[in-house]
Design brief:
Elements: E1 4-9, E2 13-19, E3 25-32, H1 39-49, E4 59-63, E5 70-75, H2 81-91, E6 95-101, H3 106-114, E7 119-122, H4 132-143, E8 150-152, H5 159-168, E9 173-175, H6 189-206, H7 215-218, E10 219-222, H8 223-238, E11 241-247, E12 252-257, E13 277-282, H9 291-300, H10 309-318, H11 327-349, E14 364-370, H12 372-376, H13 379-391, E15 404-407, H14 413-419, H15 424-437
Parallel strand pairs: 1-4, 4-10, 5-6, 5-7, 7-8, 8-9, 11-14, 14-15
Antiparallel strand pairs: 1-2, 2-3, 11-12, 12-13
Helix pairs in contact: 4-5, 8-14, 8-15, 9-10, 9-11, 10-11, 11-13, 14-15
């Protein structure tokens, strides 16, 4: 395989890694994302910086530009099928902007429309169960002034009837397997693939990010979807559970890929069930735009941030481009990031629905930190930021206190995910190099 240029067209920066077939990173570059003109201008800039010709066969992209993938979930019961759909949407790299449960009313349709989703995930019922609410909601969506395409992933026995209702009004839709085929079993794979396909076909091209310069055909996934795929490859390569915490300017995302052990492999105790490959997004935990919300969340968790942190949060929220320069500012920045990690991991591990157990994180063998604050912080500060993921007992579960903690300073996990489908050997090699040197 020739070298492959992997590019993440982010909301702020376009980042690129040039990867060889042996998994070696042979070059890296970054450029501000050029949403104001054409995102391909930024792609061309990183390509030129690395001296790489425009070769669509060896250029793969993921994207979260233009707000990424905005998903609405419509389900039956909020704590059962709607919750299952929410979890699956997050695992597919979406930002869940709205959740509706039960038979939709006119007010529900207005709320859905106001959320401006790029895609609607319609779920409801177990296979062979009650399909009345699913059919009611399908009819409502078919007649609603909501232009977003629909992924149908509910009661399989009602799929044909749901499709007929959507076909009757020419509503764009894709059928997938039920996300909750049986009580206690979440099945994300089919819906996740369908969401990815709709994102690539309808959403990327519809955001107006590029004017006919071949951007859409190059995009393989939403960026969070590519990162989760990279975490899956990393966990498989290492043969152990992996937890990733990505501390961003607006959100803190947590990914975990776990292998069920013992009874967990055969017994389903939860109503919704455990999603073993999962992502959660904490939209109120960010190092810049939501810095003040981190302080508020830390107070609710009874975390002591120390002096000066609240004032620093106010400063950077008002000026997101502000960087820490002095020792005092770095202390405040580190404390803020540590709080974001603590709260985000607690939320990731806590039961998501009534009747669930905490997420089993005790056997995690590798904890990976990502995000600008971790990539640019001194090594000792980065380890301090990640420490709560290994030693915080406030969440109420056994912590992975024997895990190794590393920082993804070169931002390789997105590239591992992009390479996984067409270049699996390079993806595995890149993951192995990262885990050996990270």
């Amino acid at each position: 395989m020739p070298e492959v240029l992997c590019v993440d067209v982010g909301s702020t920066f376009t980042k690129a890694l040039l990867v060889g077939d042996d998994g070696e990173v042979r070059g890296r570059a970054a450029h501000p994302t050029t949403v104001a003109t054409d995102v391909m201008d930024g792609v061309d800039a990183v390509r030129a910086a690395l001296g790489v010709a425009h070769d669509p066969e060896h250029l793969v992209l993921c994207s979260s530009a233009g707000g990424g993938l905005r998903l609405a979930v419509v389900g039956f019961e909020r704590e059962v099928t709607a919750e299952a759909g929410h979890r699956v949407g997050l695992s597919a790299g979406a930002r869940v902007v709205h959740v509706a449960a039960g038979p939709m009313t006119a007010a529900d349709i207005r709320a859905l429309r106001d959320a401006r989703p790029d895609l609607v995930l319609l779920v409801g019922g177990t296979d062979g169960g009650n399909a009345a609410v699913l059919l009611h909601n399908a009819e409502r969506l078919a007649r609603a002034r909501v232009t977003a395409p629909v992924v149908v992933a509910g009661n399989a026995d009602a799929a044909a009837a749901v499709a007929a209702l959507l076909d009757a009004t020419s509503r764009r839709h894709v059928l997938a397997d039920n996300v909750l085929p049986r009580i206690g079993e979440v099945a994300p794979e089919s819906a996740r693939a369908a969401i990815r396909a709709v994102f690539l076909e309808h959403v990327i091209g519809g955001k107006g990010l590029s004017r006919g310069r071949g951007f859409a055909p190059l995009v393989r996934a939403a960026t969070p979807d590519a990162v989760l795929r990279g975490v899956e490859v990393l966990a498989h390569t290492r043969g152990e559970d992996v937890l990733v915490v990505d501390v961003g300017g607006a959100t803190t995302d947590v990914y975990s890929v776990l292998a069920p052990q013992g009874e967990d492999a055969t017994i389903r105790r939860e109503v919704v069930g455990t999603l073993w490959h999962a992502r959660t997004v904490e939209a109120d935990l960010g190092m810049r735009w939501n810095a003040e919300a981190v302080v508020e969340a830390a107070a609710r968790e009874r975390l002591d941030l120390g002096p000066g942190v609240a004032a620093w949060a106010t400063t950077v929220a008002a000026d997101p481009a502000r960087l820490a320069t002095t020792a005092a500012e770095w202390d405040a920045e580190t404390a803020l990031a540590r709080a974001a990690v603590t709260v985000a991991v607690r939320r990731h591990g806590r039961p998501a629905a009534a009747g669930d157990r905490p997420r089993p994180l005790a056997d995690v063998g590798l904890v990976v930190g990502s995000g600008g604050v971790l990539r640019h912080a001194p090594a000792e500060a980065a380890q301090s930021v990640l420490a709560p993921a290994l030693g915080d007992h406030g969440g109420g579960w056994r912590v992975p206190d024997r895990a190794r903690a590393v920082v993804d300073r070169d931002y390789v996990l997105f590239a591992v995910g992009l390479l996984a489908e067409d270049h699996p050997q390079a993806a595995a090699a890149l993951a192995a190099r990262f885990s050996a040197t990270g």
